[in-house]
Automatic annotation (TrEMBL):
Entry GO CC: plasma membrane
Transmembrane helix among keywords: yes
Keyword terms, alphabetized: Cell membrane, Membrane, Transmembrane, Transmembrane helix, Transport
Signal peptide: none
Gene Ontology BP, a term: transmembrane transport
Primary location class: membrane
Protein name in UniProt: ABC transporter permease
InterPro entries xref list: BP-dependent_transpt_permease, MetI-like, MetI-like_sf, OppC_N
C-alpha cells in the first residue's frame, strides 16, 4: 500500500509539473504576437508598416515591367512635359524621360543598396563588437586599433576615390564599397554594451558550467542586447538610404544612366527646376522623407517589442 501510494504521488507530481509547464507555455505570448500587439497599440507605426511593405513590394515588382535602357532614352518631344497626363503621370525631365518610371526604378535601386548595405555592415559590425567586447584584453586592444585606423580615414573621400578608379561599377559594387566603411558605428555601439553584459552573473555562470565562448556570445549575450541591435539596424537602414542618395546627388553614386533617388534630387541643382519644373525632384525628396519617418516609427515599435520579450523571458 505504501509503495503504491508513493508511486501514485510521484505520478501526480510529474503530471502536475507537466501541466504547469504547458499552461505557462500557452500563457506566454510568442515574439510574433508581442510584435503584432505593439503594432496594434501604435496606429502611426501600423500605418508606417503598411507604407514601407506596400511601397517596397510595389517598386520591386513594378521595376520588373520597366525596360530601363528604353526608359532612359532621350525624347525631345516630351521635353519637361507637365505631370498628371496620360503618358506622363508625374511629368517628364529635361530629356523627355518619364519621372514616374524613373522614380520606380530609382527607388528599387536606392532601397536595394540600402538593404544590402544594412545587412552586410550591420552583420560585420555586430560580430566585430561582440567579439571585441567579450574577449577584452589584447584581442579587444588589437581590434580597436583597427577600428581607430578606419575612423581616421576620410570616409567620403575614400569612397569617391574608389568609385572614380573602378572603370565599370554597378549597385552591387557600390554596396560593397560602402560596406567597407559603414560598420564602425555599429561595432562601437555593440562593443560598449557587450562589455557591460560580459560582467553579469549569467555570463559567469555559463563560463563556470563549461559553455564555450562562442555559444555565450551568440546564444546568450546577443539575444540580451537584441533591442539595441534592432534599433541600430532600423536607423542604419534609414541612414543608408541617405548615403546612396547623397553620393548620387554629388555625382559619385550610381552611373548617370542608372536612375536613383539621388540622381533625381540632383535635378534641384538647377534653379529653374526648383521653381518651374518642381516635378523633376520633389517626388523623390518627399519619398525619402516619408520612408525615413516610417522606418523610424517601425524601429521604435520593434525596440519596445524586443524589450517586452526580454522582460517576459526574465520573468519565466
Amino acid at each position: 500500500m505504501a509503495e503504491n501510494f508513493e508511486q501514485h504521488s510521484d505520478v501526480s507530481a510529474t503530471d502536475l509539473a507537466r501541466l504547469t509547464q504547458e499552461a505557462q507555455a500557452e500563457a506566454t505570448p510568442s515574439t510574433a504576437k508581442i510584435i503584432w500587439s505593439e503594432f496594434k497599440a501604435d496606429k502611426p507605426a501600423m500605418v508606417a508598416l503598411f507604407i514601407i511593405v506596400g511601397f517596397i513590394l510595389f517598386v520591386m515588382i513594378g521595376a520588373l515591367f520597366i525596360n530601363t535602357p528604353k526608359m532612359m532614352e532621350t525624347n525631345i518631344m516630351a521635353y519637361f512635359n507637365q505631370p498628371f497626363t496620360s503618358d506622363f503621370w508625374l511629368g517628364a525631365d529635361s530629356g523627355g524621360r518619364s519621372v514616374a518610371k524613373q522614380l520606380i526604378v530609382g527607388s528599387r535601386n536606392s532601397i536595394g543598396i540600402a538593404i544590402g548595405l544594412t545587412i552586410i555592415s550591420s552583420t560585420f559590425g555586430i560580430c566585430w563588437g561582440l567579439i571585441s567586447g567579450y574577449f577584452n584584453g589584447y584581442i579587444d586592444w588589437g581590434m580597436q586599433r583597427v577600428y581607430d585606423f578606419m575612423m581616421m580615414l576620410p570616409m567620403t573621400m575614400m569612397i569617391i576615390v574608389l568609385v572614380t578608379i573602378i572603370p565599370h561599377y554597378n549597385s552591387v559594387t557600390l554596396t560593397l564599397i560602402f560596406s567597407i566603411f559603414y560598420w564602425e558605428g555599429t561595432s562601437r555601439l555593440i562593443r560598449s554594451r557587450t562589455l557591460a553584459e560580459s560582467e553579469k552573473d549569467y555570463v559567469a555562470a555559463s563560463k563556470t558550467s563549461g559553455t564555450s565562448n562562442w555559444k555565450i556570445i551568440f546564444r546568450e549575450i546577443m539575444p540580451n542586447i537584441s533591442s539595441l541591435i534592432i534599433v541600430d539596424c532600423t536607423l542604419s537602414f534609414a541612414e543608408n538610404i541617405g548615403v546612396e542618395t547623397g553620393l548620387s546627388y554629388l555625382g559619385f553614386g550610381l552611373p548617370s544612366q542608372t536612375p536613383s533617388l539621388g540622381t533625381m534630387i540632383a535635378n534641384a541643382n538647377d534653379p529653374n527646376n526648383i521653381t518651374q519644373y518642381w516635378w523633376t525632384w520633389l517626388p523623390a525628396a518627399l519619398e525619402i522623407i516619408i520612408l525615413c519617418l516610417s522606418i523610424s516609427y517601425i524601429g521604435q515599435v520593434l525596440r519596445r517589442a524586443a524589450d517586452a520579450s526580454q522582460r517576459q523571458g526574465a520573468a519565466d
